[in-house]
Write a structure and sequence with these properties.
By secondary structure, this protein is an alpha/beta fold. The protein is built from 13 helices and 16 strands. The chain binds xanthosine-5'-monophosphate.
Amino acid sequence: MQQDMILVIDLGGTTNSTLARQIRGLNVYSEIQPHDLEPAAYPAWPRVKGIIYNGGANRIVDGKPVMPSAGLRAASVPQLALACPDLDGIHQAAWDADKLKNFVYKTCQCQPRWTMDAFIEEQVALLREQIGDQRVLLALSGGVDSSVVAALLIKAIGSRLTCIHVNHGLLRKDEPEQVVQVFREQMGATLIYIDAVDRFLDKLAGISDPEQKRKIIGAEFIRVFEDEATKLAGIRFLAQGTIYPDIVESGTKTARAIKAHHNVGGLPEDLAFELVEPIKYLYKDEVRACGLALGLPASMVNRQPFPGPGLGVRCLGAITRERLEAVRESDAILREEFDKAGLTDQIWQYFTAIPDFKSVGVRDHARSFEYPVIIRAVHTVDAMTATIAHPDWAVLDRITNRIIQEVKGVNRVCYDLTPKPTGTIEWE
Ligand code: XMP
């Protein structure tokens, strides 16, 4: 059964996503569309049961008032204009819950059927329809999004999905092993594991500029993936873990909700595949809920954000194997101890970074000259601004003692006190 839908029309406010999520919280599907949407050209129109104009405070864009299209204004579904103050940097605006409920359930007669189980059932059917008896390729990083896409496709088409996991040597401790264990052994996926550690580290040797490091890692990833993809004949589709925030701009100044659909995996368009993007209408928390409903382990689904270039941007300056191991080990200790202290759900992102200079210390009554490790732990809503977390000193003491005892080449631990701005969350 098709889901009812409430459209949120973007008139230039910054709270569209918050509103859409509040409606989804009522178990009714909601999507954001630009003000110039023409119903006749919108394939999902038959599902639309109501329209909300999210005015925000910026209805004048480029000196002109933003007006909904004639088609929208003439549409014969209930329409509601809502003004919500733009809450800069907070993005936690809440609309009058009773007013919304009344509009959604009573005025528009929507049925509360938007649940993860319903989504999965609908997506599996859609995927089977789109893919038919063809095969699909997926770059499976082990991050939340690609893992959930893999799990959905396994449910829909089983062994006709081929996953490629590229280990570039910049993943966290035990991550590549977990990907192989969960997908190959537990879920029975066809998984090609590529050990490209030497290839990446050779390319990165001596490169200290952060942007150049990012470019090398991105470009090399594409090359490795292409090399493997061309070995596999007869695959028509490429799956991607695009999610809703990737395609919707919530803070739009132009009242155009949909960004140019960027190539999220960074894969080249001339790979000659058709795209399959089964989670492109889900917000991150829904992606996680979907993963859990599909049986993925909580440790995989509830992962905190991890940059594409991985530990490559946390091993500061030119990457060396010695410091890369030290950052991987210290990060594992930090995560283990925060987990034990019950901080996992309370801090948005935390990790260690290792600089490329040494400091003097004492070890076993002798002078030592080793690297420091920096702990960073931040609270944020949208990663645009951040404040630092204040974990208990006792927890930090425990982590410090473990790092200086267990991590080779490290004699000092620092805690980064910098909010964003001025510091970005990552050091590079
Ligand atoms: P910054 O350091 O810019 O980070 O305050 C904001 C968020 O983005 C993540 N981040 C990245 N993610 N590729 C990514 O996929 C990158 O190059 C990258 N750099 C930063 C960072 O971990 C934080 O969550």
